Amino acid sequence: MAIKLKIGSPVVGEDFFGREVELRKAEALIRDNNLMLAAPRRVGKTSFARRLIDTLSSKGWNTIFIDLEEITSIDHFFNAFYGELVKLPETKVADFELGAFSNEEATKFISILAESIGIEVNAEIKRYILDKIGWNIPFFIQLLLSRLPAGEITKADIDEAYCHLLQTGSFDTWHERLNIEYGDNKDIAKLILKYLCVNVDGKTRDEIYNHIYAKIPSFENDELGLLLRALMTDGYLVRDGEQYKFRSPLLRDYWKETYC
């Protein structure tokens, strides 16, 4: 049997040699586990992974392969993953919207975290925390609780932690995302967010458009709908009736503190 000499690129098909023992072990493990393949560079991880995929595919598994070295962002990964997923035979992909915690779930989450980190929070304080955050996602809850002192927590403690949190850079990635993902619309998106962060109750679509048009007369009204939808999808904004406003008071106050 002839094997082609390949240096650097993954080896597939008949050019793959050996690893029978490792393949059997990996196949047995992956039936009940996720598998993280660890090895130094150039040992042959990619070639081995491709071979394992081919082996499982031949036995009826639905498999996909994504080269993460080519992935540059989370959105890039999702698009690549989804693109491969829908190619599988009889694959059904259902939309599943994952929202924030309910108040009940968030309250339980606070209780568990508080006990874990050695702070005492009564029912009134838990409600106050949720009112301050305004959007019950675990990330925001953990951020705020991480800034609280040990012992029994007061509203003053929460207010102080909240103000300190706005100045720590914990939300800088939200601004950086605009630069990376919004392309030519990044400045318009920033303009919208800067406008809304000082208008707590929000603004209508027409009011937002007029604000943009006063500064950028070339901006087309048709573009605004897509941009607002993107900002809502990414968690910056929410629509409340006819008003668009920041989804989270915490993010809104950060924006006002940092960019206004």
Describe the structure in brief.
53% of the residues lie in helices and 5% in strands. The protein is mainly α.
Walkthrough of the structure:
The protein is built from twelve helices and five strands. It has helices at residues 20-30, 45-58, 74-85, 103-117, 123-133, 138-146, 155-165, 172-181, 186-196, 205-215, 221-233, 249-259, and strands spanning 119-120, 151-152, 203-204, 237-240, 243-246. The protein has three domains: 13-85, no CATH class; 103-165; 172-259, Arc Repressor Mutant, subunit A (Orthogonal Bundle). It is extended and about 65 Å long. By secondary structure, the chain is mostly helical. It has a three-stranded antiparallel β-sheet with strand order 3-5-4.
Would you give the CATH topology of the largest domain?
Arc Repressor Mutant, subunit A
Strand content: 5-15%
Oligomer: single chain
Low-confidence stretches: none
Helix content: 40-55%
Average pLDDT:
85
CATH superfamily placement of the largest domain: Winged helix-like DNA-binding domain superfamily/Winged helix DNA-binding domain
Rg (CA only): 25 Å
User: What strand line-up does the widest sheet have?
Assistant: 3-5-4
Structural class: mainly alpha
Strand tally: 5
Total domains, how many?
3
CATH class of the largest domain: Mainly Alpha
N-to-C order of helices and strands: HHHHEHHEHHHEHHEEH
Largest sheet: 3 strands, antiparallel
Overall spatial form: extended
Looking at the overall shape, the CATH architecture of the largest domain is: Orthogonal Bundle
Q: Count every helix, treating DSSP H or I runs of 4 or more residues as helices.
A: 12
Report the end-to-end length measured between terminal Cα atoms. 70 Å
